[in-house]
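Lecture notes, continued. The same structure-token format from the folding unit now serves as the input rather than the output. Read the line below as a description of shape only.
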């Protein structure tokens, strides 16, 4: 009882401090108000603990943390390749440091492991299984990810301060932490900023502390626990996954695992056997989903190259759409030739204040990257630059082709699947070209590497060059196939799932 009250006092003091800080320094509050959500996540269980409503505080914490972890983990498991790409950014030697660079080559298996662990921890917390192990693992993960998002946010702040002061900055900052990244961009237009991600982790941390303190009292759910926890968890997943992200799979997945969890009770296996069978069953379902999306394609594509989206429309500017654009500006460090006075100013102010008219002011330093001045609309696709062998940009020609066209994306020809996959692509290219459709490949590999591939496999279709990040964004496969018409993506296939030409023709070519 005393521990509960001490925790309640601590959480309320933190909530009061954050309220005062938010009022005194409004700039710490983010656009999505996740800062105030963090205050709420500290205050609500804190007040309940002080009022002696310990069970209510525990239920709320389990429901919120468990539901968020399930949705978060499934979003990562849906696109482990994309999550792995984000981890590679963190594992850059100039980002987190030399120690973390050792994990760069393990980014993909780590992404699979972490995404599955998130889902399993969320499910175990909802069902009340292995509370002590789950609670301390959750604590470790929230502390680690909280540190990671704080580190990222601080790095960005230091980089901004250096740029504003006209000073060099040699560290690599991850501008997007990857928390719901593509899902957020695809649903609300942008991902969380590093500080918003930190506030999200802080929100979870407050509730995880309650779970850790109450771990010894959390047992596998009884019927009365299920009646309280399961419906509210389902509602959160409906709102969080279904409404915000437009993706019902987390809800369906939770219903399936809940039916499994409840169905296994009927077998009366005994506690130890029940725990083992349930854990293995949930792990199988979770990792089966991860491997399915890896060996095929994400079942929900949140990227601007999703099926039915038009690349040209995704490239339209704010001005073309009649929207307010995001304003960026470079930072100038200037010196007055007459007085020796120095100042830093951004390019927007430089033009608006007509500093350029005063010949005494000279620009000594220009920031290598622009800074954000005012947030507005950014086109989901900034550019579609594809170069031919003569170094001409033919991107617009490709997406303006009014006929059906086939685009093979092979970002790295050395790492691409070979054998039957290449044979299938070769056969398809012959059939498509015979029917009068353009067939070509995009790669970021060198001319020599791609020519080796062409000669070894006697490929007759042309290869063009694109940025590796662009190609990985178009499709999470190496190789992958995209069917286009006038810039609209009609269908995408993983290299291992490419169908026969006649099947494509009957299903997608009208």
């Amino acid at each position: 009882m005393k521990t509960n009250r001490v925790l309640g006092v601590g959480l309320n003091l933190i909530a009061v401090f954050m309220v005062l800080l938010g009022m005194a320094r409004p700039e710490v509050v983010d656009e999505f108000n996740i800062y105030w959500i963090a205050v709420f996540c500290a205050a609500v269980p804190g007040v309940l603990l002080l009022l002696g409503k310990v069970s209510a505080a525990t239920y709320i914490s389990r429901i919120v943390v468990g539901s968020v972890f399930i949705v978060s983990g499934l979003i990562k498991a849906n696109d482990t390749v994309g999550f792995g790409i984000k981890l590679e950014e963190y594992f850059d030697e100039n980002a987190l440091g030399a120690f973390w660079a050792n994990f760069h080559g393990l980014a993909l298996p780590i992404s699979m492991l972490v995404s599955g662990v998130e889902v399993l921890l969320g499910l175990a917390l909802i069902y009340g299984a292995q509370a002590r192990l789950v609670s301390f693992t959750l604590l470790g993960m929230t502390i680690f990810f909280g540190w990671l998002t704080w580190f990222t946010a601080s790095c960005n702040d230091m980089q901004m301060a250096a740029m504003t002061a006209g000073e060099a900055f040699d560290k690599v900052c991850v501008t997007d932490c990857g928390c719901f990244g593509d899902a957020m961009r695809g649903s609300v237009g942008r991902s969380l900023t590093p500080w918003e991600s930190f506030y999200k982790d802080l929100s979870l941390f407050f509730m995880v502390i309650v779970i850790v303190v109450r771990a010894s009292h959390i047992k596998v759910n009884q019927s009365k626990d299920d009646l309280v926890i399961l419906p509210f968890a389902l509602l959160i997943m409906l709102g969080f996954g279904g409404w915000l992200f437009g993706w019902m799979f987390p809800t369906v997945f939770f219903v399936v695992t809940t039916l499994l969890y409840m169905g296994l009770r009927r077998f009366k296996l005994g506690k130890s056997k029940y725990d083992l069978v349930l854990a293995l069953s949930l792990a199988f379902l979770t990792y089966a989903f991860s491997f399915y999306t890896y060996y095929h394609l994400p079942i929900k594509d949140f990227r601007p190259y999703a099926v039915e989206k038009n690349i040209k429309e995704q490239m339209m500017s704010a001005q073309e759409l009649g929207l307010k654009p995001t304003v960026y500006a470079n930072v100038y460090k200037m010196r007055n030739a007459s007085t020796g006075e120095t100042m830093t100013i951004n390019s927007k102010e430089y033009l608006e204040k007509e500093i350029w008219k005063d010949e005494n002011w000279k620009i000594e330093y220009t920031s290598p990257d622009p800074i954000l001045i005012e947030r507005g609309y950014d086109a989901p696709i900034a550019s579609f630059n594809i170069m031919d062998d003569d170094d001409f940009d033919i991107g617009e020609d490709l997406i303006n082709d009014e006929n059906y066209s086939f685009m093979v994306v092979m970002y790295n020809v050395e790492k691409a699947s070979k054998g039957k996959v290449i044979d299938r692509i070769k056969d398809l290219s012959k059939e498509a070209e015979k029917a009068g459709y353009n067939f070509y490949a995009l790669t970021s590999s060198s001319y020599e590497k791609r020519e080796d591939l062409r000669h070894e496999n006697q490929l007759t279709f042309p290869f063009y060059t694109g940025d590796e990040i662009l190609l990985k964004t178009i499709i999470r496969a190496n190789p992958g196939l995209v069917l286009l018409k006038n810039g609209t993506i009609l269908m995408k296939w993983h290299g291992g799932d490419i169908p026969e030409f006649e099947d494509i023709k009957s299903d997608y070519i009208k």
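Point for the exam: Residues 131-164 form the longest helix (34 residues).
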